[in-house]
Structure formats: structure tokens, C-alpha cells
Design goal:
14 helices, 0% strand, globular, mainly alpha, 398 residues
Length: 398
């Protein structure tokens, strides 16, 4: 996880050092999401077909190769965008396999705590990553940040080597498109799942993407430099770590309501960036946003683990990812032109409104308040269920 956070910091700083604009930053970051759109569904299909350990090992090895390109000192927006695109392709295969594999190695009694513990460990890496990235790009050439990302991915690869996944019973292999359709039916049969996927994808496009693009730009213009950028991302993770710890102990009666309330916290971030001149105010908002995201994540995880059959789990996870991946690039690419047309303050205020209003609309769908429905899946050969154990997908970049 630390490598996932150091890598984009290194890419963005490399681009800005070469005179890159907000539009170029948005386009480079959007290439990750473009890769997730192109490969996301197929990543889920292959994670359901193959041993998930093999998929994860191949993805991490490929990431190591991609990051090595950054050590050559490239500054072209096209090359940096290509690196981010390839990293996104590896992520499209790794994430579904990782999420489904973690569920299969935990017993039913361990799974709720496992969701929170995984969130906590993920956030520890996310805290270290931006802080390390900000320190390295401030105190050393940007190549040091790429080297740190390479080391993190290599360690991850080594950690996965001894992993042994229990046997998962799989149905007979069909065509890839038919298997994708089965995943869509799983989501369609539970409307609240589809609603939450759509709402979080829209929030990623209209709220998180503008904040992500404008944060490094405003850090240099209004808040003293790149250290503010890295610190903000680190505090987002500190809040997430706290939210993960709290979620280990807290079992809300209405998990869906608690999760949606957590999502609205990100709506505080964009207004803080444009209305406050004090860095600490922005830091507090990022911490609250991280806390809310993790509360949402754990409740979402535990609910999906209860609803989704094991043999279709990775495909449902991929649908969640691809929804965000299809819309987030639009937000990243359009933020620069919108900022030029309307000004950063107007863009961020609109983003803050969307960040609060969109999650609340999900409560209008039956089943969202409790993250549960009366739907039962059609008969399958494998009835064993496993859990999704990870944080909310489309917020990983933070």
C-alpha cells in the first residue's frame, strides 16, 4: 500500500517540476482510471477463474517493471501517463483477486474483524506512503521516490510468495462475457448495491477528482509547497486508520445509514481548500474525510460478504471498481478546463455540494439504510460465501 501512495506523488511532482499544468496532472492521473475501465471486468473474471495468488504475484511483478521506468528520470506527460496507465492495468487484476482471496482465508467468525483489521493495515501503509513521498521529493531527487515505490512493491511480492489459498469451488467456465453478465445480475438483483455503486462513482467524479487535481496545485500556490500536499494525503489516511479502529468495535444498528453518513464527510474537503487560509483547517477536513470513508468501507465490506456468492465475488468487486473508473477520469480531465472557466473556488464549492448531496440520495433506495435486502441469488453449484475484505475501491488513490 505504501508503494501505491508513493508512486502517484512521484509522478505528479515529476510532472510539475517539468512545468506541467493542472490539466496535464488531471490527464495523467485519469490514465489510471482509463486502465481500470478497460481491464476491470476482465480482471474480476480471471480472478474468479485462476488461483488468486497467481494473479496477485503477476500483478506485483508487473508493477515493479513499470516503476523502474521512473528511475530513468522521465518528465514527459505522455510517458508518465503511460506509466500510470500500466500501473492501473495491474491494479485492475490485483484488487479483485486480493479482495476475494482475503475473504477465503478467513473463517466466518474472523471476517468482520478481518475487514476492519485489513482497513487499519491498509491505512498504516497509506499514512507512511504520502509522508515518505513528500519527504523524498522535498529532500532528494524525485527518483528517490520512485526507488521507494519499487522497494515497496518488491516487498509486497515477497510477502505473497508463501500465501496458500483454500480451494474455492468454481462453476464450469463459460465465455468471459457470460461470466461478466452473471456478475451484473448479482448486482441488479440487489438494487441497493447498484445504487451505492453508482452514487459512490458519481461522488468520485464530482467531488474527489476535483480535490485530487487541485490539491497539488493549490498546495504550491496557497499553502507553501509540496509538503502540504503530502501531509494532507497522510492525514486522510490517519483519519482512515482511526475510522478502521473504531469500526472494529462499533456495530451500528443501521450499517447503511452509518456508511452513508461517513461518505458525506468528504464533502468538507473541497470547500476547505478554497475558503480556508489556515492549513490546519484543511488537515482536519482531510482527517474527517478519511474517518468517514473507512466507516463506509467496513460496513460495505461486511454487507457484501453476506450477500455475494464466492464464485462471483471478484466480478461484483470489479463492477464496483469499473463504475468509479468509468466516471472518475471525466472528473480528473474536466477539472482543469472547469477551473480555467469558473475559477478554482467555484469548482471546489460545487464539488463540496455534490459530496454531501449525492450520498444522501442513496437512502431513497430500499435496503440502503441496513445494507440488506430480501433478495436470494438463483441456485448455484457453489453456495459457500466469502467476504470482500478491503477499503472502498475507488478511494484508493488517496
Amino acid at each position: 500500500m505504501a508503494g501505491d501512495q508513493v508512486f502517484p506523488v512521484a509522478v505528479v511532482v515529476s510532472l510539475l517540476d517539468a512545468g506541467g499544468t493542472a490539466t496535464e496532472v488531471g490527464a495523467v492521473l485519469a490514465s489510471r482510471w482509463a486502465a481500470l475501465v478497460l481491464f476491470g471486468l476482465f480482471g474480476g473474471v480471471w480472478a474468479d477463474r485462476l488461483p488468486r495468488r497467481h494473479v496477485m504475484l503477476a500483478s506485483q511483478a508487473f508493477l515493479c517493471c513499470v516503476v523502474m521506468v521512473g528511475l530513468a528520470g522521465v518528465t514527459s506527460a505522455w510517458v508518465l501517463g503511460g506509466m500510470v496507465f500500466l500501473a492501473g492495468a495491474a491494479e485492475a487484476f490485483f484488487r479483485p483477486a486480493f479482495q476475494a482471496c482475503l475473504g477465503s482465508v478467513l473463517t466466518p467468525e474472523q471476517r468482520p474483524a478481518g475487514a476492519a483489521l485489513n482497513a487499519v493495515s491498509w491505512r498504516v501503509g497509506a499514512i507512511a506512503g504520502p509522508g515518505l513521498g513528500a519527504f523524498l521529493v522535498s529532500a532528494a531527487p524525485v527518483g528517490a521516490a520512485f526507488l521507494a515505490a519499487l522497494a515497496a512493491f518488491a516487498v509486497s511480492l515477497c510477502v505473497l510468495l508463501p500465501l496458500r489459498e483454500p480451494l474455492v469451488v468454481r462453476t464450469a467456465r463459460a465465455s468471459a462475457w457470460r461470466e461478466i453478465a452473471e456478475g451484473v445480475r448479482e448486482v441488479w438483483g440487489r438494487r441497493w448495491i447498484g445504487t451505492v455503486i453508482v452514487v459512490t462513482a458519481l461522488q468520485s467524479m464530482l467531488t474527489i477528482a476535483p480535490a485530487q487535481v487541485l490539491l497539488p496545485v493549490l498546495a504550491r500556490e496557497n499553502f507553501g509547497g509540496d509538503a502540504f500536499y503530502g501531509t494532507s494525503l497522510a492525514l486522510l489516511s490517519v483519519g482512515g486508520l482511526t475510522g478502521g479502529v473504531v469500526s472494529m468495535l462499533w456495530k451500528p444498528r443501521r450499517p447503511g445509514l452509518a456508511a452513508i453518513a461517513g461518505l458525506t464527510a468528504y464533502g468538507l474537503v473541497p470547500p476547505a481548500l478554497c475558503l480556508s487560509e489556515a492549513p490546519w483547517t484543511v488537515y482536519v477536513c482531510f482527517a474527517l474525510a478519511g474517518f468517514g470513508i473507512e466507516v463506509f468501507s467496513v460496513q460495505w465490506v461486511v454487507s457484501l460478504q453476506r450477500e455475494v456468492p464466492a464464485e462471483r465475488l471478484a466480478r461484483v468487486v470489479s463492477l464496483d471498481w469499473i463504475a468509479a473508473s468509468a466516471l472518475t477520469p471525466l472528473g480528473l480531465i474536466l477539472t482543469g478546463p472547469a477551473e480555467s472557466l469558473l475559477g478554482s473556488a467555484s469548482v471546489l464549492l460545487l464539488a463540496g455540494f455534490a459530496g454531501v448531496a449525492l450520498p444522501l440520495t442513496a437512502l431513497l433506495t430500499s435496503g440502503t439504510t441496513y445494507f440488506r435486502s430480501k433478495y436470494r441469488p438463483y441456485p448455484t453449484k457453489a453456495r459457500k460465501r466469502v467476504e470482500v475484505v478491503s477499503v472502498a475501491s475507488h478511494y484508493d488513490h488517496q
